[in-house]
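My current task is to audit a protein record that another person submitted. What it holds is a sequence and that sequence's fold in token form. Thanks in advance; the entry in question is below.
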Amino acid sequence: MGKPVKGKRGFESEGKGIGGQARTIGAKFPPEIDAILRSLPQVLGITTAEYVRNAVITQLKNDGLLSKKPEDKGTGT
């Protein structure tokens, strides 16, 4: 998680390469999966958001919807 920012609501970015144009998407999970996701910071040392973000990016690449080349930032077109 980022550092608290005095006088602002929220946290300072840790530089995940997302930028200021990032949008939020929410998802609901069954209790068993929710518990696993919430344990990730203690178990793996990464945030739940980072884990889910990486999983979605991996799936988009596997489905051919996002380029697999690290230097490409757009879709797989």
The chain has two helices and no strands. The helical segments are 31-43, 48-62.
